[in-house]
Amino acid sequence: MEDIKKLEEFQAKIDADLKIEPKDWMPEEYRTHLQRQISQHAHSEVIGMQPEGNWISRAPSLRSKVVLLAKIQDEAGHGQYLYSAAETLGKSRDEYLEELHSGKAKYSSIFNYPTLTWADIGAVGWLVDGAAIVNQVSLQRTSYGPYSRAMVRICKEESFHQRQGYEIMATCALGTPEQKKMAQDALNRFWWPSLMMFGPHDSESAHTANAMKWRIKRETNDELRDKFIQKTVQQAEVIGLTVPDPDLKWNEADGRYEYGEINWDEFWNVVKGNGPCNKQRMRHHIKAHEDGTWVREAAIAYAEKQKSKQLVA
Amino acid sequence: MSNTDHQGDVWEVFIQSKPGLPHKHAGSVHATDKEMALQNARDMYTRRQEGTCIWVVPLQAIVSSMPEDSESFFEPSDDKIYRHPTHYIMPEGAKNI
Amino acid sequence: MDKKEALINYCLRLGDTSLILGQRMAEWCSNGPILEEDIAMTNLALDLIGQARTMLTYAGELEGNGRSEDDLAYGREEREYYNTLLSERPNGHFGETISRNFLHDAYLYHLYAALKNSKDEMIAAHAAKSLKEVTYHLRHSSEWMVRLGDGTEESHNKVQQAINDLWEYTGDLFEMNEVDNLLINEGIAVDMNTVKQAWDNTVNEVLTRAAIQRPEDAYMHSGRLNAVHSEYLGHIIAEMQFLHRAYPDATW
Question: What is the pTM of this model?
Fold first, then answer.
């Protein structure tokens, strides 16, 4: 009885667009939904450092090197903000990392694709960050306070990321024939995986209904995906690249692009762990974590020693 | 997770963006001691010229009121409108100080 | 050798050292022991590459042949690079990186502190700006030296070994040749013996706090002044210059 009343109050708060804060009562499913979604988001930022990090040492100018470094650093920062938000839900970062390493927690499948050429770094910034921004702008209005605040900060910082990627793409697309080929190839490989970033169709998505009811998500997967496509196709046209979708066409009457269907078999295949880099990414993350064990232990031991010295004094 | 290996304690970070302004909550960092907490906060939260001063506070040291305190803490001030200047009627033509 | 040639060489030494150490620090991206440290190490790399850009741009201007920072970074071979031998040492484990950086940060800190008064305005301004950055770098590496040196037995042994192994590359930091002599006379460069004394003090102080033994001075490698490097440098710049060499006609 008590819980039903609390649940009604909770839903009334959500419906009035009031934020839920860490110490407020919340239904267990709301908590676990957020723990899963926010930690998955955090893991994605952190794993996302790998495909981009793959090109720092080979960035073709010192300017592009510092820009790429600053961008990847932001991603580490965003991972950190998101872990912090997730920790307010009563699980520690250690626990979230353990879930990642055991395979219980997922991260965005887009990072299981390799960055093979410099143009791929352009494609990642332009398409992957572009898709992420569409999603994150919407999440600024999410109902959970710490998540919303993290998103506001992240959106502010992300604003240069997509431009950085588009600039690389544009330079390649308007460069030598070899560069143009590189740019088109990058778009060909990253277009569909970017669209998959928004997740399955609303009708197929197990979590969409609750997420919408509780205003964790404010727009559905399909709505967000459509927004992204409408903006990005035009940008591809401006730099003379062809979006690899034979069904793509401009609908004059509606003033919008129509597009083809995603290959969902590929989507589920990568989610299940069969993407080109799933194992590589996880091995890399686990190795860095394990290589760091003695360092963390040393810092903890040092702090303990200092504390006991203070007690004696 | 063993006792000897963890991500460190959580420290809340407060940044003053300009001299004269109050310190404002920016987020948190993990660190094993105060010097590391300060450095991590600097590296994390002042990358874009956001700060002139940083405070770091161990999360455990913060005392928070609870949602169930809300009614007794905050609602009693709802009817004390005489604490606000708009409660008072100024004679026509009188200027504010 | 005239003053201009000497000054160009001096700028390349500073610029190349920052560039190579920056390139090394960038390798840490996504490999740090804790997420906060990934962000800290990227900050170091960003500062260092920023320093390199200033000095390489200036070297190109002095040269007067229209070479840009990128022409100098991407267009030279290993026998034309004047970075310190210490800067190109591999990252190894976190303790090795911290040890290398600590020895190097203390060096750049005192070098820039002295160069702030250089009669060359560009060098003086560069030193003043870089000194602020390096002050923080030295704080970061020193504090980690103390934590690792005075942490667990394992961490202590690892860092002691790292310092022992790196020690033979510290002599190279302070060597001088006719470039230095010429520029010291002009009031542009500084006497590295003075820098060495200040470096000794800082190193001794932090090693003591870290409970790490300072190694005895023994054989010291040299090479920086003649652009003779370890094998590592060739790989660093081969990787860095890959796109320029593969697509000589392209601009990025």
Answer: 0.95
